[in-house]
Amino acid sequence: PDSFGVLRTDPERVVIRFDPSLERFLKENIWHPSQAFETDEAGNLLLTMEVGGLDEVMSWVLGFGRQAEVLSPAHLRKAVAGRYEDGLELTMAPAKHLLQKFLAKGP
Question: Is residue 107 very low, low, confident or very high in pLDDT (cuts 50, 70, 90)?
């Protein structure tokens, strides 16, 4: 019951900030038995859960793109940021190669 999916790890307090446009969708579903919602001063939806299986939480959060931001725990926030950096690196690799080729030619 503590896990977010099938992976079982010790539960941790997870807080995710969502864009207000997702409020209805998020509140209409039970993502985890411990879920609790509140709204911050800016009108964003905060989801708090005591959950294990943070790799699965990370995959779920990544599916929301820039409409979701992990606030805690710090190591989950860092892992999500790392996945975005990896994606950016892959996306920018062709442009980086062309830039290096251009710079190598010189004036």
Answer: low
Q: Which of 24, 79, 29, 86 is nearest to 53 (CA)?
A: 79
Taking alpha carbons only, the member of 27, 73, 26 closest to residue 54 is 73
Return all residues near 21 (Cβ < 8 A) that are at least 6 apart.
67
Nearest to 34 by CA among 44, 23, 48, 22: 48
Is there a contact between 12 and 55 (Cβ–Cβ < 8 Å)? no
Q: What confidence tens digit (pLDDT) does each residue in 15-72 have?
A: 999 999 999 999 999 999 999 999 999 999 999 999 988 999 999 999 999 999 999 9
Q: Contact at 8 Å (CB) between 64 and 8?
A: no
CA dihedral 48, 53, 54, 58 (to 10 degrees): -100
106 φ, ψ (degrees, to nearest 5): 75, 180
